[in-house]
């Protein structure tokens, strides 16, 4: 690992959450006090910043350890967030949120039917004309660009290197985590159903959601084959 690459990782980390939260608030354009469900909130990095800005935030994740860290950070930041431990397949809100966000490739973990049903549950959770922002990896870009990435883990900072293989829409990411302090390496595969934009559009329309914008990055650039991310903003029809 060269010094130059580590420099890039640092820049990436600094840009990270701040830029993402600026992007989220600008595209959702909500009023203070309106409600946001952060679906798969992890350790709360978006939820906490959004709560600081006066939104009524609920953070949901399946991993209690992540939620515990998130709750501690929220307390330190002196913000009120409702945290809920739940599998997203069991989401059971009814017309409760102005917006639902699903950040950092936190979708595509299950079968096609289960994934599609999650989008239905998200649509049900939204108030009429509510917004859904989903941030996915651009699968084709990922396959062409097997890069080292910086990844923030609750227990410290790791460098993540990966190689992506795509077969029948299933992306297999061969990951290697390198702990910067101890030098320890952990290798594992991460498998995700990576959807194309037409596939997502079809799932959305079956759930009463219409795509209103697509983006290729948190700087707001338009989505294309050349962008690392596929970020979709959709609106509930009624
Ligand atoms: C890629 S992380 C993204 C976290 C967060 N959105 C962020 O940007 O930091 C994926 C998250 O999904 C959660 N997760 C994995 N499987 C889940 C499930 N079946 N139900 C709910 N959350 C789950 C993990 O605990 C993890 O926090």
UniProtKB/TrEMBL annotation:
- Can you tell which superkingdom this protein's organism belongs to? Bacteria
Q: Does the keyword Nucleotidyltransferase apply?
A: no
CDD domains according to UniProt: AdoMet_MTases
Q: Which GO terms describe its biological process?
A: methylation
For the Methyltransferase domain, which residue ranges apply?
Answer: 36-130
* Cited InterPro entries: Methyltransf_25 (IPR041698), SAM-dependent_MTases_sf (IPR029063)
Question: Keywords in UniProt for this one?
Answer: Methyltransferase, Transferase
What Gene3D superfamilies would the database entry show?
Answer: S-adenosyl-L-methionine-dependent methyltransferases, Vaccinia Virus protein VP39
- Per its record, what are the GO molecular function terms? methyltransferase activity
What PANTHER family does the annotation carry?
PUTATIVE (AFU_ORTHOLOGUE AFUA_2G14390)-RELATED (PTHR43861:SF3), TRANS-ACONITATE 2-METHYLTRANSFERASE-RELATED (PTHR43861)
Q: What name has this protein been given in UniProt?
A: Methyltransferase domain-containing protein
This protein's species is Sporomusa malonica
């Amino acid at each position: 690992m060269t010094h130059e690459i580590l420099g890039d990782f640092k820049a990436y980390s600094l840009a990270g959450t701040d830029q993402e939260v600026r992007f989220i608030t600008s595209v959702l354009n909500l009023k203070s006090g309106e409600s946001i469900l952060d679906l798969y909130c992890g350790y709360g990095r978006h939820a906490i910043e959004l709560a600081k800005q006066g939104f009524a935030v609920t953070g949901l994740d399946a991993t209690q350890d992540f939620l515990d860290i998130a709750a501690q950070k929220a307390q330190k930041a002196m913000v009120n967030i409702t945290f809920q431990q739940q599998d997203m397949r069991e989401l059971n809100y009814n017309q409760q949120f102005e917006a639902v966000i699903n950040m950092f490739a936190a979708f595509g973990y299950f079968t096609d039917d289960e994934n599609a049903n999650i989008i239905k549950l998200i649509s049900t959770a939204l108030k009429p004309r509510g917004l859904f922002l989903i941030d996915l990896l651009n699968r084709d870009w990922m396959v062409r660009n097997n890069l080292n990435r910086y990844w923030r883990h609750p227990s410290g900072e790791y460098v993540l290197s990966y190689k992506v293989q795509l077969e029948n829409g299933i992306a297999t990411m061969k990951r290697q985590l390198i702990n910067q302090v101890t030098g320890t390496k952990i290798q594992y595969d991460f498998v995700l159903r990576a959807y194309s934009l037409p596939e997502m559009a079809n799932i959305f329309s079956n759930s009463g959601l219409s795509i209103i914008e697509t983006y290729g990055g948190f700087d707001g650039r338009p989505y294309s084959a050349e962008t690392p991310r596929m970020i979709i903003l959709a609106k509930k029809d009624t």
